Backbone:
C-alpha cells in the first residue's frame, strides 16, 4: 500500500523569461495504490484542478465568451492492472470530473450548471514481443457528458438605441462521441535509444 501527494502548476509559456507570466492552472492530487496480489494493482486518485486566465477545462475563452476566472474541477480516477498470463497484462482506467464554472455577468455565458466530464480507457499489453511491448487500446478521451449554460445575447436595437436581448439555456454536451482505437509497439534499443510505433 502506498500513498502519494502531488502539486503542479503551469504558467503562460509565452512569458517564461519574465516574472509577468500568468498562472494557467494548478492541480492538487492524492493517490492511493494497492497491490492486492503480485499480479494485480489498483490506483485511486482524487484531486482538484483550479484554472485561471479564462481557461475552461483546458480550453481558452476570451472577450464576450470569457469566464470569471473561477473554474474549479474536482475529480476521481480509478485504474487497475491485472496480469492475465505470463506476458499479458490488462489495464483499465475510469475518471469522473465535477466542474464549478463561474459565468461572466457582462458576457454571453452567464451561468454554468451541473458540468460533468468523464473518460475511460482499456488496454491489453503483451510483453516480450520481439524484445519489446505490443499493445492494443480503446480510449474515450475526457468529454463533457452533462451540463448546460445560460446565455444572454443581443439580437436587435430599437429606435431609441436600446439593446433587445434574448436569453435561454444551451446544452454543453457535444453531439459526437470520440472513440479511439490504438495499436502500439515499443522497444528499447542499444544504449540510450528506443523505438516506438503507434
Residues:
Amino acid at each position: 500500500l502506498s500513498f502519494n501527494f502531488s502539486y503542479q502548476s503551469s504558467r503562460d509559456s509565452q512569458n517564461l523569461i519574465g516574472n509577468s507570466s500568468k498562472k494557467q492552472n494548478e492541480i492538487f492530487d492524492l493517490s492511493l495504490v494497492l497491490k492486492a496480489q503480485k499480479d494485480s494493482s489498483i490506483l485511486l486518485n482524487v484531486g482538484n484542478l483550479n484554472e485561471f486566465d479564462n481557461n475552461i477545462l483546458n480550453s481558452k475563452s476570451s472577450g464576450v465568451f470569457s469566464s470569471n476566472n473561477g473554474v474549479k474541477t474536482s475529480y476521481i480516477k480509478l485504474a487497475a492492472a491485472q496480469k492475465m498470463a505470463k506476458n499479458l497484462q490488462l489495464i483499465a482506467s475510469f475518471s469522473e470530473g465535477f466542474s464549478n464554472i463561474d459565468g461572466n455577468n457582462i458576457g454571453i455565458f452567464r451561468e454554468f450548471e451541473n458540468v460533468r466530464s468523464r473518460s475511460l480507457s482499456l488496454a491489453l499489453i503483451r510483453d516480450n514481443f520481439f524484445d519489446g511491448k505490443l499493445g492494443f487500446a480503446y480510449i474515450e478521451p475526457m468529454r463533457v457528458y452533462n451540463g448546460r449554460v445560460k446565455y444572454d445575447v443581443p439580437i436587435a436595437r430599437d429606435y431609441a438605441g436600446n439593446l433587445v436581448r434574448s436569453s435561454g439555456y444551451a446544452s454543453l454536451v457535444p453531439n459526437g462521441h470520440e472513440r479511439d482505437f490504438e495499436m502500439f509497439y515499443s522497444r528499447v534499443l542499444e544504449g540510450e535509444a528506443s523505438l516506438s510505433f503507434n
